[in-house]
Every structure is written in structure tokens, then in C-alpha cells.
Design brief:
about 220 residues, Rossmann fold, 2 domains, 4-stranded parallel beta sheet, two-stranded antiparallel ribbon
Length: about 220
């Protein structure tokens, strides 16, 4: 079982990511973020209040059982009304959940949390990495696709010079991450996001080994 440890982004960053988005649908998750008190029912309701105070119209909220499960697609069908009325979805889940939802719905998704590290893993089989748990999540500006993991070089400011017909120069069988990001942002009408310079990555976003303690009330 995987437990992703998250922290809420500063409200200033969330407000910046939601700039120009007047109508927002908020989504949390019933597993990891509920356990860490960063995206369960109380936190989603608190975010609804905070955004409403900032003048945003919250078109709906939900806490799905498991955001990173592909079955979430069926749950999204049941809440289409509120989602369709929104300009963007504010996702209070780990990056796995944000990316899962981004692949299942044609809406801009904005992460409200930074994914710090995996707290526990006991699994058997084969896994594909989709998040390095770097603690400096930028997928709100890359269409829900993580360039740090999807790009062999971890580039955060666009493709390298070796991209060839949408393929990676290191692995010609692999799609170029930044080509995928460009196509996603183009479909969403958000190409301007690619023009924003990303600061050098903080490779020490969370010291190893990771530690997290739920604040006592």
C-alpha cells in the first residue's frame, strides 16, 4: 500500500494558479490526504470557505474514495454538472491523483498540495514512476504532466535540443515529455503557461529520510 505524504501549498500560490479562474470545483481524496489532514472532507470545506472569501464561485466539491484509481472516471461522471460549470478543478490530492484526474477529464487541473514523499510502500509487481515526491510541484502549470519524472533529463523549462518528431533523444521509444505538455496545454488554451520561467529545482525539498507529523490541536 502506498501512502503519499502531502502539504498544502501556500494560499498565495494557489491564488496565483487560479488567477483568471472565477469558477472552481474542489476535489479531495478519501485515502492518503484524508489520513494526513490535507485533503479530506474538513480540508475541502475549509478550502471552499477560503476561496469564497476571495471572491471565487465554488461550483461544487467532492471527496472521491481513491483519486489515483482509474475507477475515479466513473465517479466523475456523476458530478459532471458542477465540473462543467467550473473554469478549473482544484485538486486536494497527491500528485498521483492530480495526474489521474488530468488524464480523465478535459478540464484544467490545479494541485492544491505539494507531494513530499511516499510514507509507506508494500507492493508486489511492476510500477511506473509518475512522481519523484520532490516537494516543489509545478504540474499546475504543465497541464497535469510532471516534467521532472516524464522527462529523462528532468527539465522544467521546455524541451532540450534533442527532441525528434515528438520522441526523446535518450529513448526513441519514449514520447518527449515536453511535447506531451505542449499538446495538453494547447488543447486547454493555456500555451502561455510554457512561457513562465521555472526557478532551479530545490533538490532538498524534504530531507531524507522523510518525516511527517500531523499537528496536534
Amino acid at each position: 500500500m502506498i501512502r503519499s505524504i502531502t502539504q498544502q501549498k501556500p494560499m498565495e500560490e494557489i491564488e496565483r494558479l487560479l488567477e483568471g479562474m472565477g469558477r472552481v470545483f474542489i476535489m479531495g481524496c478519501g485515502t492518503c490526504v484524508t489520513l494526513t489532514h490535507t485533503g479530506g472532507i474538513p480540508e475541502v470545506e475549509a478550502m471552499r470557505g477560503a476561496l469564497s472569501e476571495k471572491g471565487k464561485v465554488v461550483t461544487g466539491t467532492t471527496v472521491v474514495p481513491v483519486a489515483c484509481d482509474n475507477l475515479t472516471r466513473e465517479i466523475l461522471k456523476d458530478i459532471q454538472s458542477g465540473i462543467k460549470q467550473s473554469d478549473a478543478l482544484l485538486i486536494m490530492t497527491c500528485a498521483f491523483g492530480v495526474q489521474t484526474i488530468a488524464h480523465q477529464i478535459g478540464k484544467l487541473v490545479i494541485p492544491a498540495l505539494n507531494t513530499m514523499f511516499i510514507g509507506k510502500e508494500t507492493a508486489f509487481g511492476e510500477f511506473n514512476e509518475v512522481c519523484t515526491q520532490c516537494g516543489t510541484c509545478i504540474i499546475g502549470e504543465t497541464g497535469g504532466i510532471c516534467p521532472v519524472t516524464a522527462c529523462h533529463k528532468g527539465l522544467v523549462n521546455g524541451p532540450c535540443g534533442g527532441t525528434n518528431n515528438g520522441k526523446c533523444e535518450i529513448d526513441s521509444n519514449k514520447d518527449c515529455a515536453w511535447t506531451a505538455i505542449y499538446n495538453r496545454l494547447k488543447a486547454l488554451g493555456r500555451i502561455d503557461s510554457m512561457r513562465k520561467y521555472q526557478k532551479p529545482r530545490n533538490h532538498l525539498g524534504e530531507p531524507n529520510p522523510g518525516k511527517f507529523r500531523i499537528p496536534t490541536v
